[in-house]
Amino acid sequence: MRLTNLDMDALRSFVTGIDAGSFAKAADRLGRSTSAVSAQLKKLEDQVGAELVRRSGRGLALTDSGDLMLSYARRLLNLNDEAISAVRSPDLEGWIRLGIQEDFGETVLPQVLGRFARAHPRVRIEGRIARNSELRDKIASGHLDLALLWDDDSAAPAERIASLPLCWLGAASEEQAWKAGAGEALPLAAMEAPCLLRSLACAQLDRQGIAWRIAFVSPSLGGLWAATAAGLGIALRTPFALPPAVRVLEPTAHGLPLLPSLGLSLLQSKTGDHAISAHLAIIIRQALTETLPEDWITTT
Question: What integer is the mean pLDDT of 81-88?
Answer without folding.
Answer: 71
